[in-house]
Each structure stands twice: as structure tokens, then as C-alpha cells.
Amino acid sequence: MRAVDWEVVIGMEVHVQPTTRTKMFCSCAIAPLNAPPNTHTCPVCLGLPGVLPVINKSAVEACLKTAVALNCEIPRHTKFDRKNYMYPDLPKGYQISQYDLPMSHDGHLEVGERRVRIRRVHLEEDTGKLVHAGDRLHKAHESFVDLNRAGVPLMEIVSEPDIRSAEEARDYAMALRTMLRTIGASEADMEKGQLRAEPNISVRRTGTTELGVKTELKNINSFRNLHRAIDFEVKRQIEALESGQSVKQETRGWSDAEQRTFAQRTKEFAEDYRYFPEPDLPPLELDPAWIEELRRALPELPEARRARLVAQYALPLHDASLIAAERELADLFEGAVLAGADSKLTANWVIGEIAPRGGGSFANEITPHQLAQLLGLLSSRYLNRDNAQKTLTAIWNTSDEPESVATQKGWIGQVHDDVIENAILEVFETHAQAVADYRSGKRQALGALVRAVRAAAGGNADPSRVSDLLRAKLDA
Amino acid sequence: MSDPTHLTISELRQLLDDRELSAQELLGLHLERIEAADADVKAFLRLTTAKAAEQAQAADRALRDGTAGPLAGIPMAVKDVLCVKGVETTAGSQILKGFKPPYTGTAVQRLFDAGAVMLGVSNCDEFAMGSSTENSGYFPTHNPWSLDRVPGGSSGGSAAAVAAGEATFSLGSDTGGSIRQPAALCGVIGMKPTYGRVSRYGLIAFASSLDQIGPFARSVEDCALILQTMAGHDPLDSTCADRPNDVTRGLHDGVEKMRLGVPREYFEVEGMEPGVRLAIQKALNTLESAGAELVDVSLPHTDYGLAAYYIIAPAECSSNLARFDGVRYGMSEQDAQNITDAYMRTRRKGFGAEVRRRVMLGTYALSSGYYDAYYLKAQKVRTLIKQDFDDAFANCDAIVSGTSPTVAFPIGSKTQDPLSMYLCDVLTLGANLAGLPGISVPCGMSEGLPVGLQVLTPQWREDIALRVARAYELAADMRVEVALVD
């Protein structure tokens, strides 16, 4: 198999739970992950006879904000439709979704160097959850229905098949997450099921334009697994095609335990969902003034911020991309620079030291002020690199001042005067010219001498003490 | 004092206010009447005697305290499609047997808040699908005027209860004529409000874009009062309009100088009985003598209305009834092989033939490949029918016609021929397709059975419909009679 012969084509369907207090069509609170089954339900989301849906305005607002941020077109009129199918996790026997007039369409998202086109962003409701007693579905002796999630709002973000690799697919999903968090539309936590990525994957001979038969992957619960699942699936498809078999159009699941995809449901017969306009909800008129207001209220988007980081701080594009990819990282970077830290040094530390430590959130772990102070100590050589790293670890997740922690730990200013004086004698030998310059009145030579002495003394010497002792000797 | 089971709300209120009668006594008299008549009429599926006693007691207290609402102590019957907390509500279907809603719908709650006393749950065609109440999953209801005849439907139990003196008023739902047609066949007043006038929250849906809750009553004034009490914006129903509740405006102002449109197509429908035509003609003459001007109008797409209706209503019903799957409530057949088998067993056993027929029709009409030819085409016809009414109302204030082409027909005479049953709605379903209000008032007899006059008006002009009906009531000296079951 030669991967170079094949082109990978991926389109992404991403379901995102917008940040709302209540469900899509009723006033039930959104259940926390560990809530006991069926404790966040009411007649509406249970689908009892006689109930009616009422649209959650904040879900519509989150969807429109997302659409605007993804450069989508937003129509004047939109409506909800019923998608009809029967399953025990779907209380009404239909899902309220959007079919031919979605809330938005035709946008794009920049992912690294690639522009991924967005086909549509629409709103719908989630289904409930089935729990089967027994170890396997077909052997289950009993099944239980939990409707806590039934009616939870979901935005479905559908991309065009513009993605060409597992890496790009992962980067796309991560870029989407950053975007959603930046604009406050969703927490977009994959582990909590707030962002569910379903890649549609096919391969074709390099140079051909016809799309191959695609498979859709489900139940992927992390960015890492998204990457792995697509890698696996691409290899599986290429192997099948190269050995003369065909790829079946089907939905496949990802098994985390076995690290492979497996067939879930064939799509040989397309299900007929009998979509028709939801008669219980009047069509929505989207006021352009409202959309404009949402557009104006958007914070700076990751793409724009990346460009600004390059322009304003002279960062390399690569560094700017890494920093702009996480809003909190970028906020930390800009905050520290504003507090006086050197931008290049800050960028290095944010990328090399801070980002690897964070679990996706940095807001509570370190403040821009702490970082700026720490980097100040480093650049003025109060701390060497090792001790600066140790100090970072010590202040992580605390509100302690780096300087006092480092002092207390003995990482600053604990070099004995004897050592400094020996170092001065050494420097008088090695830097004779600077000593002469100083003594002839070039006072600015002092700085270089202080640095040299501190280096000779091991790097940790308190600069002001060094300076005092040095001047005493020079002026003697 | 005349028999209180024959009286109107306003007459009863006078007696209650004058302490000639208590709400509890009034309840007792109705329970006696039900005891005497309902074995023959079978208007009620189940009585809610304990609830009624509680409500009557509360009404007496409120009447004493001077805090009584406009319907204090007035006995009503509630169609089996309206959810009442803790009261078995089954939509006339076996599939919901035993289902007790955990909530009360908005319209019923507003009537409770106004002091009404709920006697019980009245019979109807299963899921409101039918024109004779013979499709009830329990038993048919009989017409109090002639027990071997149907009361009309689908709200046949509610119409029969008022006609038989078993309730002062009642509630129905009207999707294609299900209030107006049984009102006509039972000789009582029945009204379907504008779509969006009354909240549908708590109404078990048949066809969501057509369904509307409305009253049966013995006088136009009563009808207006009940409607006014139920109507108005409800945050739980997005299709319920936030509009001024002005249905009683100008109720007694008469029809002088009013232009009443007579649609020629509504007098040429298939199967229109000569006796019915004659009674309607007399009613029109009465309105003319009262000062109204009769004008010819045309509703050219009338012929297509029935076909469009029998696509749209089944399409919506096929989706609305998907929730009755035996998983969460109601009938649930055990011993199934798998989930599909469980669905099939439960629904085959729980739904009657007419409901199954409409679910299949609707499923077909929405299926890929047929959607454009059926559902979409039917929606286009619906637009044309609305346009017909708009054009007609450019030339008149209200449209008057018969409500049903026939008087009450013998039980069993149409059950083998669904199409002849569907034709019962030919004069009423246009108002549902166009979302218009319509009222049926009794206008004499044909072959010893009641005939109904229908008044249709533009959307939100219930006031005009009620005013025309009131003018007719006055001019014809019409009084809703209680049929004395022999």
C-alpha cells in the first residue's frame, strides 16, 4: 500500500451543545453528567400527550453567534422541521430539527493554512439515552431509558468535504472548539459530550475527482481518538480497495478499548425521515438588526487574533498560531507582555512551559502578573532557567508572588559574599578592558561586569549585592 | 323555577346569585340527569364525581364570599382529548387506557379558575378522527333526539351531553368540523375559534395546524363567555397569539346593514338534503328580515378542500401519534421479539381501524418521492382556499351556510364507507384549512332532527360571528331545547 496513491476526503458533522440554562423546547434545567436518570424531565421533554414545544431564545442566540463567527449567511426566515423515526430514546417519535431552511449556511473556518467551508449550522434537540442490562445489546434482558438528555439543545455544524487528513480533521475540531469558547457559545468539552465530532471519510485515487464511498464514524470522545479513528479508517479503506474489495456505505463506531472502528449500521437503504415543517412552531423571522448586534458584540476571533499577534508582537506565524489556538493562552500572553514581560521570551514560555502544563484551562493556574514577574526575574538573571522552572511549579495554581517564593526557597540571593568576591577577582582578570573603561568614567560598563560576576558566581547571586561589592572594589 | 338542567349559564348564574340554588344542588341535579339519561345517550366515558363535588363546594364558598368567577358552579363536560391532572384521559383510544396526565391543559385550567365544575370526560371518536363518535375505542354515543342516530363527531359526547341536559356546557376540539358538525346534529351551539385564539397546550394533538378547542353551549351569550374565559396568549403554546381578547365586543348590536355572503358552492355540495337546504334558506330569510344584506360569494376551490384536508390532517397525525409506542405510558404489549415487534403489537392492538388508516395515509403522503405530489400540493391548495376566503370577505362581513349537508344519520349507516363519512365535513373543514372562526347555531328541524346554521368570519373576528349568531337567535326566537330522552 502506498498512501501517496490515495487522497483522503473528510467532511465533518459536529454536534455542539450550546451553553444554555434550560433545554431546547421546555424549561427543564440541563442535567449535570452524574444526575440520576429521568430527574431533569417534564411533560414536554417526556413527550406526553398534549404538550407543545417552545423555542429557547438563548439557544437560538448561541447558534446565530456561532454562525456569524463561522462567516455564515443567515437568512431572514428559518423554521423547524420534524424528523420522523421511532426509537425508545426519542419520546415524541420525531426529533425537532431543521431541514431545508437552516438557521445559517455557507460559511468557512480557517484551520492552519486551509479554509474549510461550512455547509450549514442548524439547531435541533438531543435524544435520550438507552442503558441495556446485560453485557451486550443483543443479549440484553432489559433496557432502560434515561431522558435527562432528551430535548437538550444541539447545534449541528456541517462542513464541506474539504479536509484531507486525520491531522486536519483534529485541527478543525480543535479550531472549532477554540472558536466556540472564544465567543461563549459552548463549553465544547468533548469528554463531557458537549462536542461530538462525526467524520465522514472516503478515499480516492490521487488525481481523480469523483468521491469514493464514505463511512461515517461515531462515538469518538477525544481529539486524540478522532485522529486515531480516522487514521485507522483511512488505512482500512485503502487496504480494502487495494485488495479488490469495496467500501460499504455505513456508520461505524470507534472502539477505544480495541483501537479500531467496527460496523454499526449499513446505509444501503437510506432511512426515510419524512421531514415536514413542525406545525407546533411558527417560522422564525430573524431580524437583521439582531444579527448585526450579535456580530458587533463578538470578541476578537482566533483567526484575527493570530494575525494581530504576528503584527503587534512580531511573533513568528507558527508561534502566533499556537498561542491564538487557546483563548486563555493568548490572554495570558498578552497580559504578561502588557505587564512588562519581553514578548519573545513570553511566547517561548507560554508555548514551551505553560501550554504543556495546562489541561485546557489556564485562568486559575497562573495570572499574567505572576508570569510577567517570573520572566522579569529570569531576564534580569535573578533566576537561572532551572530555578525559574522550579518557581513556576511552586506558584502554579496559587496566588503567590514568584519573587517571594523564589527568595524563600533560596533560589535568589543566597550566594555568599566570599564567593562573589572571588568571582570579582576572577572577572577583574577576564574583563580587564571593562574594568579600565569603568575606571576611566564609562559607568555603563558596570552592567556587563555585574552580569559577568553573577555568571562566574553561578548565576544566582543577588544583582544588587553583586553591584555593591563590585563598586566597592572598583572605586577602591 | 324551570328545570335547571335546561337552563343557560346566565340563567343559572341568576339562580345561584339569588341563592335559589346552590352549586352543589346544581351538581346533584345534573348527576341525577346523567343517571337517568346517559345509559341511553352514552355521552360520558367516565364521571369525575369527586372532583365535581370539590369544585361545587368551592364554588358555593366563592358565591357566598363574593369572589365567584364568571362560571362559578356551572357544570361542564370535557372531551376526552383535553388533559386534566389526575383524570384518566384517553383520546377515545384503548392505547391510552389508564393514562392520567400529570398536568392540566391551559384552556381547562382557565375554566377551572373561573369556577366551572367538571362532571366528567365525554366520549369522542378515537383521537378526534371521525364524524359520528362511532370510532370511539369504547362505545358509540347516541343522539339524544333519536337514539338510533349518531350525535355527529368527533366531539359527539360533548354535544350530546349539552343536548340531553347532562351538562350546561362542554368542551370539544375542532380539526375539520368536530365541534360545529355535532353541534348541528344535536341542536346546540358550537364554536371553533380562530386558529391561535385558544391555547392548545393540553389538547392531545390530531392535526396540529388545524386543531382548535372550542365550546358547546345553549346560548350565543354563553358561548361568548366560555370562549372569552379560555382565550388569550399562553407562553406554553407558540401558535397561540398574543392578541386582545375582544370576542364579546358588540355582541348585541344586530346585523342591520351587515353584508352576509352566501357561497353558492356550499349549497351545491354532494348529498345536501332538501330539508336541510330549506331550513338554511329560512334562516337566511330571517337574517335578511333582521336587516342584513345577503350577497352572493364564491369559494371556487371548495371541491379541493376535502382532498387537501385528507392529506394534511393524516400527515400531521402520522407524526403526532408516533409517541404512542408503549414505552412510556398507556398500553404496552409484552412478549415482543424486539423493539419493532413491540411497536407493531402495541399499535395494532391499541389503535382502531380509522386511526390506523389515517396514520398509514399520512405516512405515505410524507414519504420521500410522494411528498411533493401530496403534502406539498395539499399545502398549495390550502393557500388557494385561504385566498378564496380573503376574496369573499372583501365583499361581505361574514359567510353563512349550512353546517352539515345532512341531519343526524343512523348509527352504522356510514361505517363501512369512510369516504361518505369524510363528506360530512365538506362545509366545515374550509375554516380549519384557512384558520377561520366558525359557529353553528340551531336553525330548525328537518325530518324531526336539528339543522345547524354556520357563520364564518375573517380570522380574529369571532365578535362578528357571535354577533350574527346572536342576531339570528333573537330574530328567530331560537332557544336550544333539551332533548328529552324517552
Description:
The complex is a heterodimer of chains A (476) and B (486). Chain A is an alpha+beta fold. Chain A folds into three domains: 3-293, no CATH class; 300-408, no CATH class; 417-475, Orthogonal Bundle (Arc Repressor Mutant, subunit A). Chain A has helices at residues 57-69, 166-182, 223-242, 288-297, 302-313, 317-324, 327-338, 343-357, 368-379, 385-395, 402-408, 417-430, 432-439, 445-456, 463-475, and strands at 6-16, 77-78, 81-84, 94-97, 104-111, 114-125, 129-133, 142-146, 153-159, 195-205, 215-218, 250-255, 260-266, 276-277, 284-285. An eight-stranded mixed β-sheet of chain A has the order 5-6-9-1-10-11-12-13. In chain A, helix 7 packs antiparallel against helix 8. The longest helix of chain A is centred in the middle third of the chain and has 20 residues, at 223-242. The model of chain A has no long low-confidence stretch (mean pLDDT 91). By secondary structure, chain B is an alpha/beta fold. Chain B has helices spanning 9-17, 23-41, 49-65, 106-113, 156-163, 180-186, 220-230, 274-289, 302-320, 339-350, 353-366, 372-393, 418-422, 429-434, 462-475; strands at 44-47, 75-79, 117-122, 169-173, 189-192, 213-217, 259-263, 293-297, 398-402, 438-446, 449-456. In chain B, helix 8 links the parallel strand 7 (259-263) and strand 8. In chain B, helix 2 packs antiparallel against helix 3 (49-65), helix 5 runs parallel beside helix 6 and helix 7 (220-230) packs antiparallel against helix 15 (462-475). Chain B starts with 8 loop residues before the first helix and ends in an 11-residue tail after the last helix. The chains are: A alpha+beta (476), B alpha/beta (486). Chains A and B meet through loops of A and helix 9 of B.
